[in-house]
Write a structure and sequence with these properties.
Oligomer: single chain
CATH superfamily of the largest domain: Acetylglutamate kinase-like
CATH topology of the largest domain: Carbamate kinase
Helix content: 25-40%
Structural class: alpha/beta
Number of domains: 2
Largest sheet: 8 strands, mixed
Bound molecules: adenosine-5'-diphosphate, aspartic acid, magnesium ion
Order of helices and strands: EHEHHHHEEHEEEHEEHHEEEHEEHEHEEH
Number of strands: 17
CATH class of the largest domain: Alpha Beta
CATH architecture of the largest domain: 3-Layer(aba) Sandwich
């Protein structure tokens, strides 16, 4: 009988130090993973971004301090994992590359998205070398005949050239996965590769956007026609809301692709929003669990699930803005929305929720959009633009949401003293979302959780 093909992704906390890596290696071995996709060690991507921006804007000495911090942290892990001088030489090669790139940014006083992607790629490239060694140690301790083999994700994950949020090219990736990772020809191998990074056809390093390792793993799982995609993190599965916000959050045993996609899109950090697209396309069930306590089980995300509750979960997306565009020209005319969306399309900015009235349209966006002055200036060519900041988007995720009487009353009764800035209902039967002030976001989630989910068991934060 053919063995199941399992792709396992481990996030930053699961790569936190040598012990975390060893624990994750044990999980990968026990799960019989064929391909392990790893994130940078916890906090390293943030450090690399800080290194790049400091190199661009400040003195070389202050940038170099951040470089040294990254170097010291990874060399300590290398010692703890008993790396050979040759393996440490590979890490040193990456440190040299990082130092040269940062130096270049400093001298030019220019950190393009292209440069930033190459700098960020060092995080996953370092952690994957370290994790390959952790895997080798574990295989040795188990006297396994299998071999851990490091592979450069950029040989597989071809993308377009939208630096910082590159889009994978699925058919090229499929061909490369079949060429390099064919399970029939590589039965004795466990492959280890990097999440988050890719390469253009011309050979430039790209990244898929923050938190993108989940997405990489899903894309590679699709490329390999895997049977299961596993996402190993620091909580035992997807919970009814972020356990960091609400102590009553409890793990969900099963959730449909549609509900989980809405949850991820509307702010649940546990999954990168695009993760489920390839899984849905290829019909691959996704398991989410804790590498710290795999025995606690986790959540299965699948096409069909046993139950369809009205409210399964809720998410909070902080740092949102509401942009209202008003013009009398919208009255009885057509083409206005087309013009507006064209501007957003030209700047590749994605809109989350929309409402319209007679002469205005309100859109919710991530507050990073404010950095894009040209976009706002372009919008001002069509309409008066009003921006409200410091907002948060709350979403309730479930089933039959747009066909259930009394739901809105129950929601707004529980937060009757809180001003609701915008409501979006109707587009999806799985989602009801609205905007409130960022400052009351956690309070609103806690009240809604109490109303719709109730008091929980002990949260499954497992670290
Ligand atoms: P990783 O580094 O493993 O990718 P992340 O920090 O990106 O991990 O995602 C895991 C975190 O997601 C959890 O620690 C938790 O705080 C947060 N989170 C947000 N919403 C949820 C949810 N609904 N269920 C579980 N965790 C959630
Ligand atoms: N290391 C990247 C980040 O921190 C990607 C990931 O962890 O998924 O965003
Ligand atoms: Mg993540």
């Amino acid at each position: 009988m053919n063995e199941k093909i399992i792709v396992s992704k481990f996030g930053g906390t699961s790569m936190g130090d040598a012990d975390c890596m060893k624990r994750s290696a044990a999980v990968a071995f026990k799960q019989n993973s064929k391909l392990v996709v790893v994130s940078a060690t916890s906090g390293t991507t943030n450090d690399l971004i800080e290194l790049a921006t400091t190199a661009e804007k400040s003195t070389w000495e202050s940038a170099h301090l951040i470089f040294t911090k990254i170097q010291v942290k990874h060399l300590k892990m290398a010692r703890d994992l008993e790396m050979t001088p040759e393996q440490i030489g590979d890490l040193n090669g990456l440190f040299e590359e990082l130092e040269s790139m940062s130096r270049g940014v400093h001298l030019l006083k220019d950190c393009s998205l292209k440069a930033l992607d190459s700098i960020q790629s060092i995080g996953e490239r370092l952690s994957s070398l370290l994790f390959t060694q952790a895997m080798k140690l574990y295989l040795r301790s188990e006297k396994s005949k299998k071999e851990a083999k490091w592979i450069d994700a950029r040989e597989l994950l071809i993308t377009d050239n939208q630096f910082s949020k590159a889009r994978p090219m699925t058919s090229e990736i499929k061909n490369l996965c079949q060429k390099y990772l064919d399970p029939k020809k590589t039965a004795d191998k466990i492959f280890v590769t990097q999440g988050f990074i890719g390469r253009t056809k011309e050979g430039m390093t790209t990244t898929l956007g923050r938190g993108g390792s989940d997405y990489s793993a899903a894309i590679l799982a699709e490329g390999m026609s895997a049977d299961i995609l596993e996402i190993w993190t620091d909580v035992a599965g997807i919970a009814t809301t972020d356990p960091r916000i609400c102590k009553d959050a409890r793990a969900i045993a099963e959730i449909s692709f549609k509900e989980a996609s809405e949850l991820a899109t509307f702010g649940a950090k546990i999954l990168h929003p695009a993760t489920l697209l390839p899984a849905v396309r290829a019909g691959i069930p996704v398991f989410v669990g804790s590498s710290f306590n795999p025995e606690l089980g986790g959540t299965w995300v699948k096409k069909e699930v046993g139950d369809s509750p009205l409210v399964r979960a809720m998410a909070l997306r902080k740092k949102q803005i509401l942009v209202t565009l008003s013009t009398p020209e919208m009255l009885y005319s057509h083409g206005f929305l087309y013009q507006i969306f064209k501007v957003f399309n030209d700047y590749k900015v994605s809109i989350d929720a929309i409402t319209t009235s007679e002469i205005s349209v309100s859109l919710t966006l991530d507050d990073s959009t404010l950095l894009n002055r040209e976009l706002l200036l372009d919008l001002e060519k069509f309409a008066e633009v009003q921006v409200e900041e410091n907002l948060a988007l709350v979403s309730l995720i479930g089933n039959n949401i747009n066909h259930t009487a009394g739901l809105a009353k129950k929601i707004f009764d529980s937060i009757s003293d809180i001003n609701v800035r915008m409501i979006c209902l109707g587009a999806s039967k799985h989602n009801f979302c609205f905007m409130i002030a960022d400052a009351v976001g956690a309070e609103v989630i806690n009240r809604l959780h109490l109303t719709f989910i109730g008091l929980g068991e002990t949260p499954r934060k497992t670290q």
